[in-house]
């Protein structure tokens, strides 16, 4: 009996030790995956198809474009009225501008931040837009059947894993726009990269927003911020339509004091356009627009600009060069998922750009989670680790000494990359993530911190 008791205790102790050891190993693996998942994504059977926008936009591009022209007949009137309200609001609040300048950090025009104006609510839009985002099914029906379907039901249930401090807001609300500008300015960013579709077009879940651009420009100017454009993959985007749309943007908005122009190494001041999903169009088509000898060349015309392509795969760098683009950006906030978003590849990408007279603009983000709209995509989640993930990304970006750093994003709530203020919130069925133990503005403060660090290090680079 004594021997049996001793053996039983020995087995229990051994099991406990083994269990603790397994938990320890799992903790280490999760930490490593979060902070530097160098090969995450490529090892699974879906490969690049798991990239949230690559698969959805490339494979399903035609079906998505069928819904781009949805617009209510009274949109223009409603936005025009909102513009008048915004102008009157601004006139009433212009007196404290000097005080704002003293209180807020100076803008860093080498920090560009992606911004979305596609949100709507009943008060300003007659209905919820984007907050009621549908749950996107997996492209493999066998996997899709294991996950819920339907769409979110705001204001308590929204298409995001975090909840904004401003609630399920409308991007047309002047008080929201001003609050956003103040937050971006407090973060010491300088250039807003505004998601843009041509007039009358929108993403598959939204409504046209081009009429909102003048209001964004006005408020950006109030806070001494600049605005450039993130041209989305609208229907029939090619060399000809791009020429006409670039001409439209410059003709309509180019004279506004908040319209961004970048000073090149040759001293020219040129507009800048980020081109999302540029790889969807073949290099030969882009070359018609972006090379001097192209049949639709925009070079050396009043509409010449800096065009920045999205790099996802390694081979894209050669396509970008052949296309005549002026640079590349990486957009995704998922370190290790794609070649372009992997921090350890940025040095070689920067070297390639330097040797080919291209700009390299790495994109840093605070984390990534999109399971509120892609419930099957949890393996691509990147934990924020209380801000450590964001700082790791900034550190990696500064190592390659880029001329510009882009931030993904200010308010892409669906993919959990936002640095906009978020608050703790719990409803009957949903517990939202939050920034605790920090305050709602922690990622604005971290951005401001790294903006100052960038400025100081850039002074050393230029010496």
Automatic annotation (TrEMBL):
Superkingdom per UniProt: Eukaryota
Subcellular location field: Golgi apparatus membrane
Key words of the record: Golgi apparatus, Hydrolase, Membrane, Signal-anchor, Transmembrane, Transmembrane helix
EC number, as in UniProt: 3.2.1.130
Main location: Golgi
Topology with respect to the bilayer: Single-pass type II membrane protein
Catalytic activity as recorded in UniProt: N-{alpha-Glc-(1->3)-alpha-Man-(1->2)-alpha-Man-(1->2)-alpha-Man-(1->3)-[alpha-Man-(1->2)-alpha-Man-(1->3)-[alpha-Man-(1->2)-alpha-Man-(1->6)]-alpha-Man-(1->6)]-beta-Man-(1->4)-beta-GlcNAc-(1->4)-beta-GlcNAc}-L-asparaginyl-[protein] + H2O = alpha-D-glucosyl-(1->3)-D-mannopyranose + N(4)-{alpha-D-Man-(1->2)-alpha-D-Man-(1->3)-[alpha-D-Man-(1->2)-alpha-D-Man-(1->3)-[alpha-D-Man-(1->2)-alpha-D-Man-(1->6)]-alpha-D-Man-(1->6)]-beta-D-Man-(1->4)-beta-D-GlaNAc-(1->4)-beta-D-GlcNAc}-L-asparaginyl-[protein] (N-glucan mannose isomer 8A1,2,3B1,2)
GO cellular component: Golgi membrane
Keyword Transmembrane helix among record annotations: yes
Single annotated GO MF: glycoprotein endo-alpha-1,2-mannosidase activity
rRNA processing listed as a keyword: no
Family the UniProt entry places it in: Belongs to the glycosyl hydrolase 99 family.
Protein name: Glycoprotein endo-alpha-1,2-mannosidase
Origin species: Platysteira castanea
Name of the gene this protein is made from: Manea
């Amino acid at each position: 009996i004594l021997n049996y008791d001793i053996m039983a205790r020995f087995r229990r102790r051994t099991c406990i030790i083994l269990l603790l050891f397994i938990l320890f190993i799992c903790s280490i693996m999760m930490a490593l995956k979060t902070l530097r998942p160098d090969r995450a994504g490529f090892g699974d059977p879906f490969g690049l198809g798991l990239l949230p926008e690559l698969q959805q936009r490339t494979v399903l591009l035609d079906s998505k474009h069928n819904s781009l022209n949805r617009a209510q007949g009274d949109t223009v009137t409603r936005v025009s009225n909102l513009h008048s309200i915004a102008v009157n609001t601004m006139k009433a609040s212009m007196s404290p501008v000097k005080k704002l300048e003293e209180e807020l950090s100076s803008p860093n025009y080498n920090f560009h931040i992606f911004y979305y104006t596609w949100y709507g609510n009943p008060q300003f839009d007659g209905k919820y837009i984007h907050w009621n985002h549908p749950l996107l099914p997996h492209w493999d029906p066998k996997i899709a059947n294991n996950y819920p379907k339907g769409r979110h039901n705001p204001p308590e249930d929204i298409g995001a894993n975090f909840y904004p401090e401003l609630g399920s807001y409308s991007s047309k609300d002047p008080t929201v726009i001003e609050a956003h500008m103040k937050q971006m300015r407090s973060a010491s960013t300088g250039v807003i990269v505004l998601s843009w579709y041509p007039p009358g077009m929108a993403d598959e879940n939204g409504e046209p927003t081009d009429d909102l651009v003048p209001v964004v420009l006005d408020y950006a100017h109030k806070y001494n911020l600049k605005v450039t454009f993130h041209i989305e993959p609208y229907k029939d985007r090619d060399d000809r339509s791009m020429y006409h749309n670039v001409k439209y943007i410059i003709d309509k908005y180019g004279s506004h004091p908040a319209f961004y122009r970048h000073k090149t190494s040759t001293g020219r001041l040129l507009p800048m356009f980020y081109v999302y999903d540029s790889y969807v169009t073949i290099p030969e088509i882009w070359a018609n627009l972006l090379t001097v000898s192209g049949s639709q060349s925009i070079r050396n015309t009043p509409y010449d600009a800096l065009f920045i392509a999205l790099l996802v795969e390694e081979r894209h760098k050669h396509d970008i060069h052949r296309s005549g683009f002026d640079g590349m950006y990486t957009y995704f906030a998922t370190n290790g998922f794609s070649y372009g978003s992997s921090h350890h590849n940025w040095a070689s990408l920067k070297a390639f750009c330097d040797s080919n007279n291209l700009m390299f603009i790495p994109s840093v983000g605070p984390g990534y989670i999109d399971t509120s709209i892609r419930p099957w995509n949890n393996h691509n989640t990147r934990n924020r680790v209380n801000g450590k993930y964001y700082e790791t990304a900034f550190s990696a970006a500064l190592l390659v000494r880029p001329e510009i750093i882009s931030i993904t994003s200010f308010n892409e709530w669906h993919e959990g990359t936002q640095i906009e203020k978020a608050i703790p919130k719990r409803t009957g069925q949903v517990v939202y993530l939050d920034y605790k133990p920090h305050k709602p503005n922690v990622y604005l403060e971290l951005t401001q911190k790294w903006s100052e660090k960038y400025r100081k290090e850039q002074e050393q680079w230029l010496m």
